[in-house]
Every structure is written in structure tokens, then in C-alpha cells.
Amino acid sequence: MWIDSHCHLEPDDFLRQTDAGPVDDRDAVVARARQAQVKRFVVIGSGGSEREARNALAYATRDPDMFAAVGIHPHDASAVISRKLPKGEKPQLLGEELWDEIAALSAHARVVAVGETGLDYHYNHSSPEEQVTLLRRFVRLAQTLHKPLVLHIRDAHEQAMDILAEEGGSPAGGVVHCFTGGPEQAQKWLRLGFAISLSGIVTFKSAAPIQEAAKLVPKGRLLLETDCPYLAPVPMRGRRNEPAFLVHTAEFVARLRGESQAELSEHTRSATEQTFGLPAQ
Ligand SMILES: [Zn+2]
Ligand SMILES: [Zn+2]
Question: What is the pTM of this model?
Fold first, then answer.
């Protein structure tokens, strides 16, 4: 069995068009995942509002195989820091009210991690200053709650490591999700106590450095994820991603590492359970 260590299950992303209008496709999506042996899920509730956090927590409280992580995405750091969203949407809460709500939800027993949070200097939807300020807050929140961090880092590995060091690190560890660095950065994150999670990006032709990194991550520190609805792996690339597609990434990574699927399934499952402190099944 597989665990999708990072999936987004927002209603708007999983609408299926029918003659009677759009219908919520998520129950079918989760059923397909289970059929594909993707049996446990860390649902990420991290966007620019409290809505995503509440959605993830709702999944986690009604389904014993689902767990939540709660945060504000670095793209949307401005919602807390500058009380505005880069996309121009108007969430119900902004600024400190939004922060307080996210911090309160993070303490819930079914919330197994803080995040995703981090730095994305590839897109810079929020300014680097806003992203840094919010990341520092989340690092401290994770320390206070003694929960692991889910980090989203793009083109900012060194800066993120510096901030972690300045803030006293992450005593409960965490994961660098959707890893897009190379072997050197993977080694550094591993030394800082973080696990590395691979998304469908590792299957892309352009992903040679990520593939090199994937080969060197030791058993027990490697996680798999879809990060759906985006970044569907080859051969599903370009389609809406969903947790069932994890098996394609798994097949690719097993071949890459010279492992059997059973071996990869066993050690990634155990690494995910350990990283997030999930109850053993
Ligand atoms: Zn991310
Ligand atoms: Zn994500």
C-alpha cells in the first residue's frame, strides 16, 4: 500500500462537468486512489485563507485514513503580512485574524504537521520579505506545537536553511515536499533532519538533478506524494492529478533506485508514518 504524503482536495479543483451542471468528483477520486492501493493521505490545507485548512481538517476528522497539515502557502503570505491576496480574492479573514485562526486549527489533534509553508522565489506571488516573515512565524509555531514542518521550497533552498538555522530549527523534523533541488541540497536537508518527498516532477525528462537526489535519499527518509491537482506524473502529465496517480511516480522511483515496488512501498510508508507520527495500521 502507498501513502500520498501531500495532496490537496479542494472542492473547486475536482468539479466534473455533467449535463446537470458541475458535480463534486472527490468521493470518486478518493475511491480510485484506494483501488490503486493508495490507502492513506496527508491532506494539505494551505492556501490563502482558512477555507483550505478547514477542508483538510474536515477530511481528517471524518476519515481515519486521512490526516491534515495546516498552513498558509508562501504564494499567499501577503494575506497575513499585508492583508491582501496576490490573486485579488477576498477571503473572510486577513492579517492577524487569519493567522490566529490557522494557528488555532494547527493545534488540533488530527493536524499532524504545520504547513505547507516556505519560500517560493520562482513565482514570487508574495514578496520575498512577506514570505520570509511568515515562514519565521510558522517555524516558531511548529516548535511551540512540537509538530513537523511541511516545507515548500522553490529556488530558495539556501535562504530557507538559513532561516531555519536562525530560528533554532525544527525539533519535530519535517519534510521538504515536492523536492526540486539536486543531490547537494538533498544532503543538506537530510542533515537538518528533514525527509525528502518526491512528486510527479521526478518523472519529467527535465528532472535529472531531482532524479540524482532521489537515488541518494536513504530508506526511511524518502516520501512520495502527488501534490494533486497539479503536476501529474508521466504518463498522465497534463491531466488533472489525483492520488491514484501516485503509483506512476512510485513505479518510476522504484526503477530509478533499483528497488522492487514492495520494497519502496514498505520504506516510504514507514518514513511517512514516522515523519508525521501517524498511528501504525
Ligand atoms: Zn507546495
Ligand atoms: Zn502542496
Answer: 0.97
